[in-house]
Amino acid sequence: MNAPYALPAELTIYTVGDLHASLIRDLPAAESALLLDASQVTDIDSAGLQLLLALAQACEHRGQAISLVAPSSALIQASTALGVQDLLTPNQGAAS
């Protein structure tokens, strides 16, 4: 099992560029699910959600599952507010 990649506390327009570069560099294609530790996310905006959705879509195109481990309340609230909670946290709520 892969160790989860820890997401930073801030996932906003100010940080997603660097995070995107880091994800591309540090996360090689894997045969197993991509695990993202989302427990420390305290500040997230639509740019942060957009990055996570793009990452989920890229994984889907590669046939790789993606799973958010322990999504923070901030992440859950933001994804619910924008109506994308089932796309980001399928294991936390209703099946998508």
Folded structure, characterized:
There is one protein chain. This protein is an alpha/beta fold. Helices cover 43% and strands 15% of the residues. It contains 4 helices and 5 strands, in the order ββαββαβαα. The protein has a 3-stranded parallel β-sheet. The chain has a two-stranded parallel sheet with strand order 2-4. It is globular and about 30 Å long. The two termini are 24 Å apart.
SSE diagram, text form:
Layout: E1 5-6, E2 10-11, H1 16-26, E3 34-37, E4 43-44, H2 46-62, E5 66-69, H3 73-81, H4 85-88
Parallel strand pairs: 1-3, 2-4, 3-5
The CATH topology corresponds to Transcription Regulator spoIIAA
How many distinct folded domains? 1
- Mean model confidence by pLDDT: 83
Briefly, what CATH class?
Answer: Alpha Beta
Order of helices and strands: EEHEEHEHH
Write a compact overview of the structure shown.
The chain is an alpha/beta fold and 96 residues long. Helix content is 43%, strand content 15%.
